[in-house]
Each structure stands twice: as structure tokens, then as C-alpha cells.
Amino acid sequence: MQIRPILAALRHHRLATLLIALEIALACAVLCNACFLIANRIGNMRIVSGVDENSLALVVVTGFEDTQGPDVNARIIAGLHGIAGVQSVSVINTVPFGQQVDSAGINKDRAGQIQGGQIDFYQGGPGTVQALGMKLVEGVWPQAADYLPLHDYFADDSSTVISKALAAHLWPGADPLGKEFWCDRFHFRVIGVVDHLAIAQPGSRGTNTAEWSAFVPTMPGRFLNGTYLVRADPSDIPRIVRDAPAVIAKVAPDVVFDHANSNTVSDLRHNYFERDRAMVGMLLGVILALMLVTALGIVGLASFWVQQRRRQIGIRRAVGATRGDILRYFLTENFLIVTGGILLGIVFALALNLVLVTQYEVPRLPLYYLPVAAVVLWTLGQLAVLAPALRAAAVPPVVATRTV
After folding, report:
1. In a 3-state reduction of DSSP, which class is residue 220?
2. What is the three-class DSSP state of 195?
3. How far is residue 183's CA from residue 194's CA, in Å, rounded to a whole number?
4. Are residues 223 and 310 in the same domain?
5. Most buried of 11, 103, 124, 225 (most Cβ within 10 A)?
6. What is the pLDDT of residue 362?
């Protein structure tokens, strides 16, 4: 089919053609970026925490002075151990999907000239690594002598177990065991590497840093208290969390039970990603609404043009054009409009992503989203115009020419 007559006909309807093309361009820009944001959100929600979430719960208490920490720890640990089904209780500062507690920048040299980025420090007492259920892939677990008391934030010299992702970031291609890093004046030496260990709030500093974390063996006491990791059979964990407030009120009536941050780790994960799920639902709604509006716009314009061109259709049919010729004409015409809108939409999509990157630290849009969006819009456009095109092809020459 000749394209030139179609382009000539479109020049006679510049405004309508431009409006539909702009609508398709907007749909292309939103489709690309919304799908990319949805994929990022879903990727965040699927992050592997590295801990045995179904078997763990966090119990948090407040309302006491740090000097009371050792006494509070002893009473609460004893009380929680008394709940039926509890396998272990240990002191920890936080867990994946819990509160952001100890996050700090590190350096790969003592002088602080080679920066290593910002990481999360998990600090826990004896038994914590066993309770967390992490998978050790290199090195050894902390031994009894590695659990040191804190001096403000950390011990002066600490052994540490880091995530595989952090090891690859700090020393790509090298053996991380025995390597050292510093946080201000505090010194750390790597003795082990675990397969996964998500930071407390994964995704808060970008997807690439979601597992930049280290576990530091620490002796509970004045500077490590009030947060307790409970391990039990997954079937017992919900009951233990429900029973914990009453038990703590009995053994430590002078503290305040933190209901907001005390929960099973699986529930902490569910609650943490609640906004992500809401965002995914909203973006899906926006995509569906925009696709529906775009399709209705194409249907409306094509139906209007079919009605307006009944005379021309009748003449073409009278001089030998088949129904297939008429159908192909409208499909080709719509394809050209959609293609123009897609080309403009690619520019809009890249510009919108640039705004998101600079203003909201969203990753750059992968280019393969563009052809995928183009195929979707081409398919939508052809399906939307199909019904009006079939009606045009069904116009009998005699009926059409009666209006001449």
C-alpha cells in the first residue's frame, strides 16, 4: 500500500493527529518509567534478608537509663526464656526490616583517605549469629573472645563478619578474610563472610547498597541493651510475641514495652514493604487508566474518521478496492500515528527518567524498556482501531454513494 496518500490525508487532520500522537507519547513515557519503578519496588520486596525470618522475633523495651542496661538485660532474658517454646534469647541492636540504628561511613585505610561507603553495623551478644541463621560462606564465626564491650559506639578493635555483597564492593576479586576497615577511630578485621545480610532498611540508600552490612560481636551491657532477638519454632513465634508484654511487665515493671517495634521478623518485613505494595498498586492503576484512555482516544478518532470518510470509502469500493484494502488502509494509518507518538514518547520517557534520577535518586531507565513499550503501544493501537476499521471495510459501495 502507498504511504504517501495516507500521509496526505493526515495532513488534512493535523490537530486530531497531533493530539492522538501526543497522547501516545505521554502513554509511552509513563509506561516506561512506571513499569521500571514497579520492577524496582518488586525487586526490593524480594530481597533476601539472609536471616531465618520465620523463626525470629524482636522484642524491644525502652524507658530506662543505660546504666540499668545489664540488670534489665538479665531480667528480660530470663523472663523471655520462661515462655514455652522459646529456643534462645540474645541481645541485638536491630534486625533486617527493623529500626535503623547503627549506620555509618567506613574507610579502607586508617588515615581515612579511601572511602568504603555507608554500611549498617549489626551488633549482637553471644548466640546471636546462631539465632539469626545466616549462612557462612568463608571464614569462621566469632568466638567467645571476640565479644567485646562497647566504648560508646564500638569496641576499639573488633572482629567482624560481613556480607558477600559488601566484600565484593570493598575488595572486588580479592579474598576478604583478614582485610581491615575503619569507622572513625574504630578498627575492624574481617573473620568471616555470609552469603546474604540485608541492611535494616533495604532500598533506603539504593538497591546496590541493600546488603552492605556487617555483624560485630559485642558484649551486652551499658551500650547494648533493650532489644532482644527471640528464636523459636515458626508455629510458636506469633504466640511468643503476644505473651511477651505480660511477661516483661512481670519481670521488669520499670521498663516500657515498645509495641511498634516488637514483632516477628516476617511481620516486620511485611510492614516495611507496605508502602511499596501500595505504590505498585497505584502505578498499575495509573498504567491501566492511561492505556484505557489512549485506546478510547484511538477508537474515537478512528470511528469519527470512518463516519467522515464514508463517501471516499464508497468511491474506493466502487472502483475496485476490496474490504482488505480498506482494512489495511486504516490499520496502516493508525500505525503511522502510533509510531510518531512512540518516537516522541521515547524522548519524553528519557527526559522523565532524568528528572527522577536527579530529584529522587531513581536508577537510570534501562534502554530495553523502550522497545518493549513500543511493542505494547503498537499492539494496543492496532487492537483499538480494529473495530472501526472493520466497520469501514463493511460499508457497501451502494450505501456509501447514496450520499453523493
Report:
1. coil
2. coil
3. 21
4. no
5. 124
6. 83
Half-sphere exposure (Cβ direction) of 154: Cα atoms closer than 13 Å:
27
* pLDDT tens, residue by residue, 378-396: 999 999 998 888 888 887 7
- Smallest CA-to-CA distance from 47 within 262, 172, 212 is with 212
Q: Where is 103: in which H helix or E strand?
A: strand 103-107
Give the Cα separation of 75 and 250 in Å (integer): 10
Range of the domain at 15: 3-45+275-401
Q: Quick check: is 262 in a domain? A: no
Dihedral angle over CA of 355, 360, 366, 371, nearest 10: -50
Residue 140: how many CA atoms within 13 Å on its side-chain side?
7
Q: Provide the pLDDT confidence category of residue 8 given band limits of 50, 70 and 90.
A: low
> What are the start-end ranges of the H helices in 309-366?
310-318, 323-360
Tens digits of residue pLDDT in 102-120:
899 999 999 889 999 999 9
CA separation for the pair 382, 24 (Å, rounded): 13
174-187 average pLDDT score:
94
Last residue within a domain, chosen from 193, 228, 263: 228
Specify whether 41 is located in the same domain as 155.
Answer: no
Q: What percentage of the chain has pLDDT greater than the value 90?
A: 71
**Of residues 305 and 191, more confidently modeled:** 191
Nearest CA-CA partner of 381 in 344, 346, 336, 328: 336
Are 251 and 160 in contact, with CB atoms under 8 Å apart?
A: no
Q: Which residue has the cell 470509502?
A: 313
Percent of the chain with pLDDT over 70: 95
Q: What's the DSSP call for residue 171? A: S
pTM (predicted TM-score): 0.84
Q: How far apart are CA 287 and CA 289, in angstroms?
A: 5
Which residue from 129, 37, 44, 135 is spatially nearest to 88, judged by alpha carbons? Answer: 129
What single-letter amino acid sits at 117?
Answer: G
Structure-derived torsion over alpha carbons of residues 340, 342, 348, 351, reported in degrees to the nearest 10: -120
Q: Are 240 and 70 in contact (CB under 8 A)?
A: no
The full DSSP string for 194-221 is ES----SSTBTTBGGGTT-EEEEEB--B
The DSSP secondary-structure symbol of 135 reads -
* Cα 351 from Cα 43, distance rounded (Å): 24
pLDDT at 205: 80
pLDDT tens profile 311-325: 777 777 777 778 888
Q: Average pLDDT of 215-227? A: 94
Q: How many domains does the chain have?
A: 2
Residue 172 falls inside a structural domain: yes
